[in-house]
Amino acid sequence: MTDEHVTLRPATEDDLSVLDRFLTDREVASGFQWFGWWDLGRWRREWAENGLLGDDRGTLMVVRDDEVLGFVGFRKVWASRFSFHWNMGIALLPEARGKGVGTEAQRQLVRYLFAHTVAKRVEADTEVENIAEQRSLEKAGFSREGIMRSVVFRDGRWRDGVRYSILRGEAADAARR
Fold it and tell me: 7-176 sits in which CATH class?
């Protein structure tokens, strides 16, 4: 599997069963995204409310041809009364990991957010131990900003995070690489 045919698209009702797997299967969620069982109706409620696309947050499916590989999510973060930026994340099915899919999907989400909103910044966070995601973000053009100490509680302990960001002008440069 290569990243050359990876695209993003809005979720369909049929995708809800794939999204549910990230909430119910520890192996699918990955060690870095498994927070125990909680809110198993989340995806279906959001689907009923807005089809997983709203003004302040959204979920798009990562696909290659007709195969669902995972999803990307984004949420608006207000920095002041007049300015906001986006925080984004990704979750891939186990068979799609380590093949460049995440890098390409994150590049596409950044292009999408900058093309359709006035935001100047997109940020992403991951755990310090998630080296694969850090490399993926760097390949997608993100810059490492710093460590957030004890920011995530998962699997019985607090963990440090790493914040990355990309600015509007940098995204065009990253796309040419």
Answer: alpha beta
Tens digit of each residue's pLDDT (9 = 90 or more) over 31-77: 888 888 888 899 999 999 999 999 999 999 999 998 999 999 999 99
For 51: left if phi > 0, alpha if psi spans -120 to 50, otherwise beta; the answer is left
Q: Got the DSSP string for the chain?
A: --STTEEEEE--GGGHHHHHHHHH-HHHH-TTT---S--TTHHHHHHHHHTTB-SSEEEEEEEETTEEEEEEEEEEEESSSS-EEEEEEEEE-GGGTTTTHHHHHHHHHHHHHHHHS---EEEEEEETT-HHHHHHHHHTT-EEEEEEEEEEEETTEEEEEEEEEEEHHHHHHHHH-
Of 9, 23, 83, the residue nearest 52 (C-alpha): 9
Residue spans per domain, the chain: 7-176
Q: What is the C-alpha separation between 81 and 174, in angstroms, rounded?
A: 30
The model's confidence at residue 2, banded by pLDDT at 50, 70 and 90, is very low
- Total-model pTM: 0.93
